[in-house]
Design brief:
mainly alpha, 18 helices, globular
Length: 381
């Protein structure tokens, strides 16, 4: 219905689907699926019934310009000193979760033959397993923005059907995993075998949240765009080709740590980043050809199941040995697998008020670590 060259029309549909996804997320079924999964399903449907095209310049624009801006929007709240000060124990649990993710990725890649995946990707076939390992390590340490960054760095984004199928598998199983850790949290047998939380905080840190204003949102967008420009310039000066997202991540974290008041000046950066990320999800999902997705789905499902099983096993075993509480471990796992949006929400819903602020902080740090670790793993492999 909409021509691939009708850029504004395509963007308008993506924005409309984003709004619809946020609306449906408030329903009982929608809250189980999450807005991210709803957006992916709606975009796949819209593309496969012919409302929007599978490939268009508008989607390339999203990857080239919107995704880089999302990274600073998420990381402007990432003061490293604040994480250490306010979320030390949950931060330790998050590091264990990160190790579990990396081990899970390596085991899955060693068991499964992933070299046949992403046949259309502009990448050496011998490097595909390394690329897929880096991609899933990044998304299960950080989140969707890290996923997009590794897609660009590895070249996997050049195969839209694979990338959309991988995105669907990632998000659908993330939703299943959220339900699983919710069940674990209520298991009395497990709770009795872990120490109670030692945190002195008993209420959510809501009084110290900076006020979100139109000025702070506009400043957040301006600062994020400027950081992307500076990072690109630094990459050119250092002849550091392909490291756009690594430089951008390190630069943003450095500014957030050395200039902590920027968190107040750019209040709302995280929230606006979450909303804009739905356009990114739609752009990925629109490239999905259902027939092509079904071909790669079994291997992707196997990959995600193995990864998440090992992630959870390592987290619970090492966490118990290090005398971390179950709320701390599950909040960290949620932050790693699903990101900084669902971790504090789950903590609040479970009554773990001492984990609300740490959930946000370690989730934001995950956005910083995801790209770095995913890129390192890809290059080492």
């Amino acid at each position: 219905m909409i021509d691939p060259e009708n850029h504004l029309g395509i963007v308008a549909v993506l924005i409309a689907l984003s709004a619809l996804s946020f609306t449906l997320e408030r329903t009982r079924l929608g809250s189980l699926l999450t807005g991210t999964v709803i957006m992916i399903l709606l975009s796949i449907f819209a593309a496969n019934v012919g409302v929007i095209p599978h490939q268009a310049t508008a989607y390339d624009w999203v990857f080239a310009y919107l995704v880089p801006v999302l990274i600073p929007l998420f990381l402007l709240q990432g003061d490293v000193r604040r994480v250490v000060r306010e979320a030390a124990r949950t931060g330790l649990a998050f590091l264990i979760a990160t190790v579990g993710t990396v081990i899970g990725v390596l085991v899955a890649v060693s068991i499964l033959d992933l070299s046949a995946l992403a046949p259309e990707a502009v990448i050496d076939p011998t490097r595909k397993e390394a690329a897929i390992a880096g991609l899933f390590a990044a998304t299960y340490i950080g989140g969707s923005v890290n996923y997009a960054a590794l897609g660009e760095i590895t070249g996997l984004v050049s195969d839209p059907s694979f990338f959309a199928a991988a995105t669907a598998a990632d998000n659908l199983f993330s939703a299943v995993f959220l339900s699983l850790i919710g069940l674990i949290a209520g298991n009395r047998w497990l709770n009795a075998r872990y120490p109670q939380s030692l945190s002195a905080e008993t209420t959510a840190d809501t009084q110290n949240l900076p006020a979100i204003t139109l000025r702070s949102i506009l400043l957040a967008l301006a600062v994020s765009a400027l950081l992307v420009v500076i990072s690109d310039w630094l990459g050119q000066q250092l002849a550091f080709a392909g490291a756009r997202f690594v430089i951008l991540t390190l630069l943003t974290l450095a500014i957030a740590t050395l200039l902590p008041k920027i968190r107040i000046w750019t209040a709302g950066s995280f929230e606006i980043g979450v909303r804009l990320s739905f356009i990114f999800f739609g752009s990925i999902a629109a490239g999905a050809n259902i027939k092509a997705m079904l071909v790669v789905a079994p291997l992707l499902i196997g990959l995600v199941v193995i990864l998440l099983a090992i992630h959870l096993t390592v987290l619970l075993a090492v966490g118990r040995w290090m005398k971390l509480s179950l709320p701390e471990l599950l909040t960290a796992s949620n932050a790693a697998i699903l990101g900084a949006t669902t971790a504090p929400a789950m903590a609040a819903a479970k009554g773990w008020h001492d984990q609300v602020t740490p959930g946000v902080l370690v989730g934001v740090m995950g956005y910083g670590l995801g790209t770095l670790i995913g890129t390192a793993l890809f290059n080492l492999m």
